Records
---
Amino acid sequence: MKEDRTVQITKFLNLVSRMNFFTNLKSEQQNDSVVSCFKIASYNELNSTISSLLRTCIQTLKSDPSETDIDIINLLEIAVQLLPSDEIELLDELNKIL
């Protein structure tokens, strides 16, 4: 019985080593957190995505905020992380030149 379990574990470990599992989250060494990336085609699409997240939060808060507080918080945190802060700073500098 114990040998069967060892064989099963060995087969499982072989499978895991051949496959590409656990690739969505990347560890960050600095702060014990993980990063997940997704692709966006352009800044226009990024802007639309952020706007959609914010509009969804607004509509949800208008309907029934008591049951969805944590969902709204999560969506707002995602929206904040998606804001292109460096690029906006660059646009401010460009605006000064123009």
---
Amino acid sequence: MGLNNVIAPGMKAAFYGRHSTDKQNMDTQLRSAYDFANHYQCKIIGEYLDEAVSSRRKERKGLEALIRDAAEQKFDFIIIYSASRLARIPKEHDTLRTTMNILGIHIVESSTETLYSYGDIVYSSIKDALAKYEMDKIRASTRDSIKTLLNMGLWTGGRAPFGYKYHPKLSRTGEKDNSEAVKEFTKHLPIEDSMAIQRGKFEIIDHELILAKRVFSLYKDGYGFQQIAEKMPAKSYRGKNWDKNKVKQIIINPFYSGVVAIRKRNPSSRSSLNDREDWLMNKNSNIQPIISFNEWEECFRIYEQRKEKRLPPNYYKTSFLLANLLFCKTCDQELKGKDQRSKGYGKRIYICNGCGFKVSIDDVHQEVMNLFLKMQTKTAEQLVKTVQEKILKDCYEMESNIAVISNALEQEKQKLFNLNEKIEKMFSSNGDETIIKLLNIGKETLLASIQDKTSQISQLEKSIKVLKDIDANEELIKDKMMDFKRLVELPKSKIRRIYLYFIERIYVEPPGRLECKFRINLEEDV
């Protein structure tokens, strides 16, 4: 069908344009559309624009408005620059064509002066496939560009996080190359100003960073996202109130430790994160950090444990400082904290649900505190050495376990290979169906065991990485030792963290005698 059979002088047109990157100029699309309208003596009565919006975005306000107005018959036809401006996935093209055909509204491409909404099916399919190919090419190119910026220690784009403002670099390459002029100009400037002009600069927003530091501090003290948000001053998040998501975005962002990360988010669900193994991270010297990378790692580990329900919301922030640590010597059951003061009498206690043995919270807390104070005779250097030796020992044990499991895994894989061969031979020779069925049951059991062992190895490898990268870090250990040395001065949430760090479990038996089993041997030479 030719355009002259569809478009007549005086008809009303709508223009739809979209671009996703800075290099794709909307002016080109608009100029082409207005030239097309003039040529066919038509009038564009509305412009529907989606600027800096990817075709992958499900929410495109310009396109949504276009479809709404098309349903109300506000115009006779639609002008687009090319099919790729509307969509890039063939399925999306089919949906748009069907919708506009039902409404009786044609779509024309100004760049080729062809009809988008009709035509040969094979030709349309080829065009749609090419549009998808172009999208994949742009996506790959964008990913490569961002990765290059990351590896160079440069900002990868987007709005700077809360507490910072980004000033783009002034040097340019390509058609607007000014590198020589910039080089000459910056020769006589201080090195800091010179680098800012050539690489860009992050300006610190002091009053915001004070709040960001408080967010990390409260999170380490055991507060949850919502609790932290409620503690923040009103309208102090860029003129808006805080909420739990704003707090979360600070906690999960390594930017605050001077590190830029890409590929953090799952493309199919922007609210969820990819596995840490998929992230690409690099230190950026332009960022002035407010915490160390190891401190951020510690916060992120707490976040992951809470997300996976491995930690209850008030795991750290509880008045029962020995929760999950205190066990009955007689029953080997955990003693649970119970507050009996609401009855007008009684007190807070730990109680064994097995035998009913009770111990006063004040008595047992004081006894454990006294035990720790007694062990403070060790120097900080001795404590750091003791902790590091324990971590190395734990790593060695886990690596030994990995070797044992890996050996068993290889044996099971060989068994699976032999079993598959046997099943295949029996199939080809029309063997006994009952035996084949039994072999398949054995195969399923073997596959489940292989999957379980693979998961065990993966979990052990992650644990070793955490121990080596975070727990063995000397600065973090020193921080904990500083807390250990001034235990009586600490808030309860930090005291609980120290107990959880050093104590494996405490056995208690009537009339209240304690037997403490430490993760790290602190009793030596005491």
